[in-house]
Write a structure and sequence with these properties.
The chain is an alpha+beta fold and about 180 residues long. It has one domain (about 5-175). It contains four helices and six strands; from the N terminus they run H-H-H-E-E-H-E-E-E-E. The protein has helices at about 5-55, 70-75, 85-90, 125, and strands at about 100-105, 110-115, 130-140, 145, 155-165, 170-175. Strands 1, 2, 3, 4, 5 and 6 form a six-stranded mixed β-sheet that branches. Helix 1 (about 5-55) runs antiparallel to helix 3 (about 85-90). The N and C termini lie far apart (about 80 Å). Mean pLDDT is about 75; it is low at about 90-110.
C-alpha cells in the first residue's frame, strides 16, 4: 500500500501553516512601510508649503508680512478665513476646519494635520497616534519657546509624525524642523 501516513500529513500542514504566517506578516510590514513612506512624503510637502508661506506670506497679500509661519489658530481657521486661501490650496484639506484630512491610507482611514495644543517637549512619548501629523508653531518669548497662537508672529515650527512598526523598526516619532530659525 502506498500513501502518506498521518504524521507525514501533519508535518506538511504545519510547515505550510508556518510559511503562510510568515508571508502574511511580511505583507503587513510591506503595507506599513508604504503608508510610512506616504506619511513622510506628505509631511515633507506640508513643510515645504509652510516654508513657502514663510518666504512669501499669504498669496492674496492681505495677511501679515513674509517672514512668519501660521499660528495654530490660523491653521485651524484656514477653511473659514478668506485671507488664508494659500493654506487652503497648498495643504489640501478636505475635512473640518479644526483638523485637515489630506491623505487616505490603504485601509480607507485617513490621517490628519492637527495643530498642537501645547509645546511638545518629548515627541517620542507624547505623540503615539499614527493618524496625525502635528503642527507645532513656536515663538521665543525671551526665555523659552512657546506655542504660537492667535496673531503672535511664529518664527519656527515643528511637524511631528509617528511611523507604524515596519520590519525590525518599532514605532518611531519623527520631527521635521523649520528651515528658517
Amino acid at each position: 500500500m502506498r500513501g502518506f501516513t498521518l504524521v507525514e500529513l501533519l508535518i506538511v500542514i504545519v510547515i505550510l501553516g508556518f510559511l503562510m504566517a510568515v508571508a502574511f506578516i511580511s505583507v503587513r510590514y510591506l503595507e506599513a512601510g508604504g503608508r510610512n513612506a506616504e506619511r513622510k512624503s506628505d509631511a515633507e510637502a506640508i513643510s515645504l508649503t509652510l516654508e513657502s508661506y514663510y518666504k512669501q506670506g499669504a498669496a492674496d497679500g492681505t495677511h501679515r508680512n513674509q517672514g512668519f509661519y501660521p499660528s495654530t489658530d490660523e491653521i485651524a481657521n484656514a477653511l473659514t478665513d478668506p485671507r488664508l486661501n494659500y493654506l487652503q490650496t497648498n495643504i489640501l484639506p478636505d475635512s473640518s476646519a479644526a483638523i485637515f484630512r489630506f491623505s487616505f491610507l490603504a485601509n480607507g482611514s485617513a490621517y490628519n494635520l492637527k495643530p498642537a495644543t501645547k509645546v511638545i517637549s518629548n515627541p517620542q512619548t507624547e505623540i503615539t497616534d499614527t493618524s496625525y501629523i502635528i503642527y507645532e508653531p513656536l515663538y521665543y518669548d525671551g526665555s523659552s519657546w512657546e506655542l504660537c497662537k492667535g496673531t503672535t508672529p511664529c518664527t519656527r515650527f515643528n511637524l511631528h509624525y509617528t511611523l507604524e512598526p515596519s520590519g525590525s523598526a518599532g514605532v518611531t516619532t519623527t520631527t521635521i524642523v523649520s528651515k528658517n530659525q
